[in-house]
Amino acid sequence: MNIVCLDMEGVLVPEIWIAFSEATGIPELRRTTRDEPDYDKLMRFRLEILKEHKLGLKEIQNVIATIDPFEGAKAFLDSLRAETQVLVLSDTFYQFAMPLMKKLGYPTLFCNSLEVGADGEITGYHMRVEKSKLTTVKALQAIGFETIAAGDSHNDLGMIQASKAGFLFRTTDAIKAQHPELQAFDTFHELLNAIRQAF
């Protein structure tokens, strides 16, 4: 039995931190997992900047409320979910992602959670499990699923490479150049066809 594992940001929806960077005028917050492979280092950097600028969860959620999924993302997900099981695997946080999941028709999402103080300050975060995407794919395989994965960033490579079929989607030229063995697509139509061929 197949299960498709998809990254969220950069694949189904725009990057939350880039949108927040643009809204706040803080260019340092544009840095994402496309740029920084070490997620813990990236998050500690982000939290320091938020503290410095006295920005908290409410300000980020206000920006998230203005974000819509990529054009065609919901139709792509609906088509896929009509044919197979789909799981969205993300290193984002439930406090960020749920409004976007509503706009996508509530696909199943596995992600992480934030520690938030009474004043709304983000004080830390809890990763669900180490190397969450790769670990989840291996766990699914251990219970009888064959996985097909797609993502755009460094933190997606593990699940893509461990799956029976894996694809880069709307990724950077640098990641494409580092991984010429992986097929890379830029449209939902191309990705849907590639996934169907992998069934």
Descriptive overview:
The chain is 43% helix and 21% strand. It is an alpha/beta fold and 199 residues long. It has two domains: 2-13 and 69-113 and 126-198, HAD superfamily/HAD-like (Rossmann fold, 3-Layer(aba) Sandwich); 17-64, thrh gene product, domain 2. Strand 5 (146-151), helix 7 and strand 6 (165-169) form a beta-alpha-beta unit. The chain is globular and about 50 Å long.
CA radius of gyration is: 17 Å
Helix residue percentage: 40-55%
CATH superfamily of the largest domain: HAD superfamily/HAD-like
Q: How many helices?
A: 9
Low-confidence stretches: none
**What share of residues are in beta strands?**
15-25%
Query: What is CATH's topology name of the largest domain?
Result: Rossmann fold
Number of domains: 2
For the largest sheet, list the strands in their spatial order.
4-3-2-1-5-6-7
Please specify the SSE layout and strand pairing.
Blueprint: E1 2-6, H1 16-24, H2 39-52, H3 57-64, H4 73-83, E2 85-93, H5 94-103, E3 109-116, E4 122-126, H6 132-142, E5 146-151, H7 157-162, E6 165-169, H8 173-178, E7 183-185, H9 188-198
Helix pairs in contact: 3-5
How do you describe this structure in short?
The protein is α/β, with parallel strands linked by helices. It has helices at residues 16-24, 39-52, 57-64, 73-83, 94-103, 132-142, 157-162, 173-178, 188-198, and strands spanning 2-6, 85-93, 109-116, 122-126, 146-151, 165-169, 183-185.
